[in-house]
Design brief:
Blueprint: E1 21-23, E2 40-42, E3 45-48, E4 54-56, E5 61-68, E6 76-81, E7 86-92, E8 105-106, E9 111-114, E10 123-129, E11 143-145, E12 160-161
Antiparallel strand pairs: 1-3, 2-11, 3-10, 4-9, 5-6, 5-8, 6-7, 7-10, 10-12
């Protein structure tokens, strides 16, 4: 069994089955395409969430990046390296604090942030990449093009896995 099968689902009480998936893994991303016209593919799952809802680390690891979306709409993402695989947490309020910063060590179940207000589209995105951390594979708003495009890597080569297929602790 891969190590990422022992994760905690990162929002609410840790149960994914209580959440409605609003955009599934590998769905066509409805919010735009790559500048060359290549469609993008969703790299994780979007689940219903409430503004201000707590988000927790799915597993123990090191925060490798806390990234703010350049236009500010998608807000913040945290990427945690768990030693061979990474998890991504999208659509957070500014998560910086005394405990949450780049290169900080976090434990499974540790509070890492709160779901931000995206207006009528408020939700939480969770992605798992079965590969060590690289800055090259931080998808913009949780999607990558189907084929390499400009500076974006292709979805199929970036080792994302479907979070709905896992059983969470």
């Amino acid at each position: 069994m891969p190590i990422y099968e022992r994760l905690r689902f990162p929002i609410g009480d840790g149960t994914r089955l209580d959440r409605t998936v609003t955009l599934d893994f590998e769905d066509d991303w409805p919010y735009g395409e790559c500048p060359t016209g290549v469609d993008k593919t969703h790299t994780g799952i979007d689940v219903d969430a409430a503004v201000g809802e707590n988000v927790y680390a799915a597993g123990s690891g090191v925060i490798k990046t806390i990234h703010e979306d350049s236009d500010g709409y998608w807000k913040w993402v945290i990427v945690i390296d768990h030693g061979g695989y990474t998890t991504q947490y999208w659509y957070l309020d500014d998560p910086h604090s005394d405990e949450i910063f780049e290169n900080a060590t976090v434990t499974k179940g540790q509070f890492i942030g709160k779901v931000t207000n995206l207006g009528g589209n408020t939700h939480f995105h969770f992605g798992i990449r079965d590969f060590p951390f690289t800055t090259y594979a931080i998808p913009i708003a949780g999607a990558l093009p189907k084929d390499e495009c400009d500076s974006y890597p292709a979805f199929l080569t970036e080792h994302f896995i479907n979070p709905t297929l896992l059983t969470y602790e």
